[in-house]
Amino acid sequence: LIGEYTNEYSSSSSAVPEGTVRPNVIVIMNESFCDLSVIGLETNEPCLPFIESLTENTVKGNAYVSVFSGHTANSEYEFLTGNSISFLPVGTVAYQMFTQENDYSFARQLNSLGYYSIAMHPYDKSGWNRTIVYDRYDFDEMYFIDDFKNVTNIREYCSDRSNYENVIAKYEAHISGENGDSPLFLFNITMQNHGGYSVNWSGLDKTVWLTGDKEGKYESVDMYLSLARESDSAFQELLAYFESVDEPTVVVMFGDHQPGLADTFYTDVFGQKKDQLSQEGSVCLYTVPYVIWANYDIPEKDYGDFSLNYLSTVVTDVIGYPKTGYQSFLWEAMEYLPVVTRNFYRDSEGKWSGNPAELSKMAQTMLSKYAVLQYNGLRGGKNRYDDFFNLQ
Fold first, then answer.
1. How far apart are CA 29 and CA 189, in angstroms?
2. What is the pLDDT of residues 192-251, one digit of tens each?
3. Reduced to 3 states, what is the DSSP secondary structure of residue 303?
4. Which class for 138: exposed (0-12), middle (13-18), buried (19 or more C-beta within 10 A)?
5. What 3-state DSSP class applies to 254?
6. Which of 121, 167, 304, 305 has the fewest Cβ atoms within 10 Å of its own Cβ atom?
7. Measured between alpha carbons, how far is 137 from 51 in angstroms, rounded to an integer?
């Protein structure tokens, strides 16, 4: 398989095409971030008006994730590696069992193109084995809550605004520092919207709430809706900052999973318990937004909706950078199998199923190839084809 894709795609060279803009790349994985309108809710006003308004130099859509309400690190893993946890044992967290020294990652890929990489998360560094994983993924620096300055909390967690102020501070320190000649890759995980939602509204105004027959029934849902609106506003301020800077910059933002709300709420919405929904009916619970925005001209191409494991490959394509051999495979796989998650698949014919045997023949072929290639990347040991997973 590797020979097939190496022969077909010769773009795994680390040479950037002449004339290609080399932007800073700021990636934000937004904690428990989604638009609950995807499950059919009525609210007094839109939850994410700014993101909805973005059109210029913007690529956006829905991403499908493998987790619900928790296991944030598995979404992080899928984005940074292009791997899918659908091939891993149920209940495992990839960061705790399936990483190794000198692993391939989006950070390593960009570093080979001359980037300097920073990871930031305004919470404890002990979470999900991140310090070890970030080192294996070739991040040059990492920062956690004790390193953040002037933090303002919403409820008990760092607000998105405070988080972004620290992101901007790191960006400014980078461009004025000794590594300032290198473009910056900054990977940031937010914390503001973390569950639970049955607590005091400390630092949070009620701005969005349920209407219709659900108005006033679920305060915890109203809290989540107001948190999401606050995230939307903070993201607007972040883009306003980068719109004003001279350096070309791409900002990517996506949700890691939907929030875990009361079971009675979901039963009220769907008319049955959420774990009794059909395969296709449950898709809305694993839907999060993604946004790719630039402060310079990029093609406003419609990449459609796809699962999160493809997002870093799409970002690579938007920027115009060379793909690794593995990403070249993923690019083709996305055409025939645009959604592959722990819970369900979708093929290019629009078929949703939890059973691969019900997919189109090409989707089944791609899924089989994917499993083999990911296994080589994870468990190949001395037989892992490193050149396939990294730029040369």
1. 5
2. 999 889 989 999 999 999 999 999 999 999 999 999 999 999 999 999 999 999 999 999
3. coil
4. buried
5. strand
6. 304
7. 30
Spatial CA neighbour of 208 closest among 189, 229, 193:
229
CA distances for 334 relative to 232, 292, 339, 366, angstroms: 29, 18, 7, 9
Q: 350 in the Ramachandran plot: left (φ > 0), alpha (ψ -120 to 50) or beta? A: left
- Report the distance separating Cα 16 and Cα 77, nearest Å: 26
Q: How far apart are CA 56 and CA 37, in angstroms?
A: 23
Q: What is the model's pTM? A: 0.94
- How far is residue 213's CA from residue 254's CA, in Å, rounded to a whole number? 30
d(CA 390, CA 6): 12
Query: What are 188's strand-pairing partners?
Result: 28, 120
Which H or E run includes 187?
strand 184-189
The rounded distance, in Å, linking the Cα atoms of 313 and 370 is: 15
Q: How many helices (H) and strands (E) does the chain have?
A: 13, 13
Q: How far apart are CA 281 and CA 378, in angstroms?
A: 32
Count CB atoms within 10 A of the CB of residue 329. 26
- Residue 10's pLDDT is 44
Q: How far apart are CA 72 and CA 260, in angstroms?
A: 12
The Cα 7–Cα 2 span in angstroms is 8
CB atoms within 10 A of CB 24: 22
Token pair for 379? 């468990």
**Distance of alpha carbon 98 from alpha carbon 89, whole angstroms:** 11
Residue ranges, the chain, pLDDT below 50? 8-11
Spatial separation of the C-alpha atoms in residues 166 and 228, rounded to whole Å: 20
Q: Which residues, listed in sequence order, are joined to residue 4 by a DSSP beta bridge? A: none
SS3 119: strand
Predicted local distance difference test score (pLDDT) of residue 367: 97
User: Listing from the earlier edge strand, what are the strands of the sheet with 352-353?
Assistant: 339-340, 345-346, 352-353
Helix (H, G, I), strand (E, B) or coil at 282: helix
Q: CA-to-CA distance for 154 and 193, rounded, in angstroms?
A: 9
